[in-house]
Specification:
Blueprint: H1 6-13, H2 15-22, H3 24-42, E1 49-53, H4 59-68, E2 73-78, H5 81-93, E3 99-103, E4 116-122, H6 131-139, E5 142-153, H7 160-169, H8 192-201, E6 205-219, H9 222-229, H10 236-241, H11 244-258, E7 262-263, E8 266-279
Parallel strand pairs: 1-2, 1-4, 2-3, 4-5
Antiparallel strand pairs: 5-8, 6-8, 7-8
The chain binds S-adenosylmethionine (SAM).
């Protein structure tokens, strides 16, 4: 029997999972402002039950858990064991009672029907082989008037973190071949009309897609910025697998490139995302 999303399961459970955990602090600083804006739009209320798709190390689940309070509940779902282990340890050490985590694939996990008031995701819904099936599946878990809000990357060329970094890194590393732009991956949803088509076909209504841009500091020094982004995006695994000499060349070329973006606060990049909202009826 074919396992769905097998490539992504291998990817997030093997080297990438450990790299993601090791960068957790930096990732949270980078994605935080974009996720916070999406949470503002979702407007979680006290007592609500919220499903956090592709919850990663659990930082958004924690933010949501504060907003729904003790009478509410947040369920984080993710396919990655190493990443969820980290999320669970954090939850335990902070003694948070209103979060639970499920290791499962959101595309076909049998959620309890009519269970959640809202679904949220920060960059966790662009990795489905069959996005229409996935958005149909998660929809069943919502109560009658349930709502969805997620943030995903918009155009690659408007996102300095990936655009500049992969141009530099491709001179030294063999990056994964550029697949069909709509294949599972961080930029699968860069096309506004494609997102709309998926949600309409999956039966969602009241679909709103807004562009949200921010300038965000990705490191307070050139060294920290290059050290961080050399291990993000498509170059992360090729970089980890490279020899020391190649790594040094990549980092030094990244630093040179990033120096043009250095401000008194650190290296500042432009980020461009879509914040997508919809209702299930
Ligand atoms: C880019 S990371 C974002 C993580 C987290 N939401 C954050 O903002 O830090 C994408 C996450 O989605 C998870 N993921 C990918 N495909 C998934 C699927 N089919 N079902 C559930 N989680 C998935 C990955 O394991 C990974 O943790």
């Amino acid at each position: 029997m074919k396992i769905i999303n097998q490539e992504q399961k291998e990817f997030w459970n093997e080297k990438k999972g450990d790299i993601w955990v090791s960068l957790e602090h930096n990732i949270d600083k980078m994605l935080g402002p974009l996720g916070d804006q999406a949470i503002k739009i979702l407007k979680p209320k006290l007592g609500e039950k919220i499903l956090d798709i592709g919850c990663g190390t659990g930082s958004t689940s924690q933010t949501l858990s504060k907003l729904v309070g003790e009478s509410g509940l947040v369920t984080g779902i993710d396919i990655s064991k190493p990443i969820l282990n980290f999320a669970e340890k954090e939850r335990e050490s902070k003694k948070i009672k209103n979060i639970n985590f499920i290791k499962a694939d959101a595309q076909n996990h049998q959620f309890s029907n009519l269970n959640y008031d809202a679904i949220f995701s920060r960059f966790g819904v662009m990795f489905f082989e069959d996005p229409i099936a996935a958005f149909k599946n998660i929809k069943k878990s919502l109560v009658g008037n349930g709502r969805l809000t997620f943030v995903c990357w918009s155009k690659r060329e408007e996102n300095d973190w990936i655009n500049l970094s992969s141009n530099v890194a491709s001179q030294f590393l063999e990056l994964p071949p550029k697949a069909n732009p709509k294949d599972p991956g961080p930029f699968a949803f860069e096309d506004y009309f494609y997102i709309k088509e998926i949600l309409i076909k999956a039966g969602w209504s009241n679909i709103k897609i807004q562009s949200y841009n921010e300038n965000i500091i990705i490191g307070d020094t050139l060294d920290r910025a290059a050290d961080f982004l050399s291990r993000m995006g498509p170059m992360s695994v090729p970089f980890e697998n490279a020899n020391e000499q190649t790594k040094e060349k990549v980092v030094s070329a990244l630093k040179e490139c990033y120096s043009k973006y250095f401000t008194p606060k650190g290296v500042e990049f432009h980020f461009s995302s879509w914040i997508v909202s919809a209702l299930n009826n």
